[in-house]
């Protein structure tokens, strides 16, 4: 093949490359995608446009699959646009069900850079500058959270992976220290069945899931009762620990939650740190939700004690307003990352370390990994920490005002009257004889299908409640009052239709 045939290869137009032609093709593809985002956003009248699951499934069913010959991007996008309009619109202020945020604009620009340059964060030769940028952001965050000189961290896919890593390191450190046993090499020790993790019953389900995946079993997780503010009860913690000691079991870790998923409650972190220290437990803090409070004037006080964590989970795709996925995991003692380090000859051989090369795969359970640090950096650097903090403070304030109004209203019941962060759990409950859970379920359902609001439901003490997780700082009290009017209307309708009876 002669060299000048390269210019005529049929694949040229599918790749980004130097030269005007390649760049023009790039601009056109990206502009076509931007047009779709604009078109869908422009028509975004509600957080959800109300189609039933059957309708959506049927429309998706008609979507053409890849064919033998090429199809123009604008044509495929034109087919897709009506389907994308059926998505949940996270940028709409009335989308407030889960910890699912509207992404900040600089982070969307960041996503473009991340994907176009497609760096892989496993080895230095796949991400030269990106490796050091991630390291710089990690170092800045470890100092922000006060984790100390020996700490270190890594970006992760989110809280699930971060919690898993925390418990993995805790497990392996304990086995090494207690039984001189190397889990990485030899698998679980024979005593593994006695190992126990403590956390509150409001802790995230991924504590249980991690325990199961780590070979300890869900039964290794001891659930501590919560107090009236849905925080881990220190009284019950003492009781649970005494029981474990009596049964000769081996508690090795305690998980404190800094922002529970349902209530946003914050466990007493300082007391838990002291407890962990006194009983030689690994202190893991799950701050997937509450981590962002570090930037807020009011919030920073609430998360005092986070600096004592042996390991820490932070999610940036929640209250840091980053597109999915973006999370981080930190350890107080960087040496503990050795439990997830594996040297592969082709990727991160030990001899590279002698040459001073940094391979981030040594600190991760992922191999190929996105350069998510960039979008977080772009967001915080452009927005400025002051505005970012104000945004968090404002969101907390709206949540508190909303909870107060609910509490003052005779027909509403609110479980967390003083929300620590931005989740409010409540229900419409006027006096009378009717099936309360049934009505709550109907309200939740109708709000969704009437395109009024996407909110969540959850169970508290055996009863069904509504839940809003306020993340979008553009939400107003007026909008929230209108939501309550809708809830009342649907509820009254339920009662008048004869929703009598009891749950
Ligand atoms: C969301 C959440 C998780 C799980 O994080 P993902 O990013 O969804 O994997 C863990 N813990 C808490 C407290 C959370 O809110």
From TrEMBL:
It comes from the Bacteria. GO terms for molecular function: aromatic-L-amino-acid decarboxylase activity; pyridoxal phosphate binding. Its cofactor is pyridoxal 5'-phosphate. CDD domains: DOPA_deC_like. The keyword Magnesium does not apply. Keywords: Decarboxylase, Lyase, Pyridoxal phosphate. The keyword Transport does not apply. GO terms for cellular component: cytoplasm. It holds the Pfam family Pyridoxal_deC. One of its GO terms (biological process) is carboxylic acid metabolic process. The modification N6-(pyridoxal phosphate)lysine is found at residue 318. Gene3D superfamilies: Aspartate Aminotransferase, domain 1 (3.90.1150.10), PLP-dependent transferases (1.20.1650.10), Type I PLP-dependent aspartate aminotransferase-like (Major domain) (3.40.640.10). PANTHER family: CYSTEINE SULFINIC ACID DECARBOXYLASE, GLUTAMATE DECARBOXYLASE-RELATED. Belongs to the group II decarboxylase family. This is L-2,4-diaminobutyrate decarboxylase. It comes from Fictibacillus macauensis ZFHKF-1.
